[in-house]
Specification:
The chain is an alpha+beta fold. The chain is built from two helices and eight strands. The longest helix has 16 residues.
Length: about 140
């Protein structure tokens, strides 16, 4: 049976490729919470990037978790850090970054970015590949 109410549980499943660093990218465009000063709704897109260790987050539970903030009065900085802390506790990832891009309020956009790196984990060196434009046969 499908859950029809928000909840704070973050379910996980075993990382199917534990020996490999790989990047998981998620965008959650319908995040809402309430301004703790005015009670007015705040809307944001959450951008989640992580490199799993032993666990990955299950998407339905992530949806219900983010939904649980809809009626909470919380500052942008606090909610972004709280979500990251809860994800770190549930996943214990090698690396995770959460960016909350809040929509304009009073003429001001707010972006909050927080991250976590597992002690001792080092990323592999970045590899930059040239893109090849197949239409003009020119490297860009």
């Amino acid at each position: 049976r499908m859950a029809s109410k928000p909840e704070k549980n973050l379910d996980t499943f075993p990382n199917p490729f534990i020996d490999r660093d790989y990047h998981i990218h998620m965008e959650i465009p319908e995040f809402t919470c309430l301004c703790p000063k005015t009670g007015q709704p705040d809307f944001a897109t959450l951008i989640l990037d992580y490199i799993p260790d032993k666990k990955c987050v299950e998407l339905k539970s992530l949806k219900l978790y983010t939904w649980s903030y809809r009626d909470e009065g919380v500052f942008h900085e606090a909610v972004t850090n709280k979500i990251l802390d809860d994800l770190v506790t549930a996943l214990k990832p090698r690396y995770i970054r959460l960016t909350a891009r809040f929509y304009v309020r009073g003429g001001i956009f707010t972006n909050v970015t927080v991250d976590f790196r597992k002690k001792g984990w080092q990323p592999k060196p970045a590899i930059f590949l040239q893109e090849f434009d197949t239409q003009s046969n020119v490297r860009s």
